[in-house]
Write a structure and sequence with these properties.
Helix content is 0%, strand content 38%. By secondary structure, the chain is an all-beta fold.
């Protein structure tokens, strides 16, 4: 990883989403993230403003697909989600409810 703090974190290579760890992310911004289990960086351009602590798609996710975060299934997509899209209650149904 570089000496620059990451804009987002990914815990596991299999994760479909990253979690934003900075404030002020705007649509069209390219973020640099740290994939922890492989200690590598990845750059993704987001399509929407993403609030601190929220998720965005690292890859295209089809409606009905399971969504992995921290290597765990956190729910399924209820709509198609493009790489860089905000992932939240409007397009993800949690596995817990």
């Amino acid at each position: 990883m570089s000496n620059t703090p990451p804009d987002f974190l990914v815990h596991d290579e299999s994760d479909a989403v990253g979690v934003v760890v900075v404030e002020g992310v705007t649509a069209g911004q390219t973020l640099s993230g740290w994939v922890m289990d492989s200690d590598r960086t990845v750059d993704i351009t987001v399509n929407h403003a993403i609030p601190l602590g929220h998720k965005f798609a690292l890859k295209n996710i089809s409606s009905g697909d399971s969504v992995l975060k921290y290597g765990e299934n956190i729910g399924h997509a209820v709509a198609d989600i493009a790489t860089g899209d905000h992932v939240h209650v409007h397009n993800l149904k949690t596995s817990k409810w």
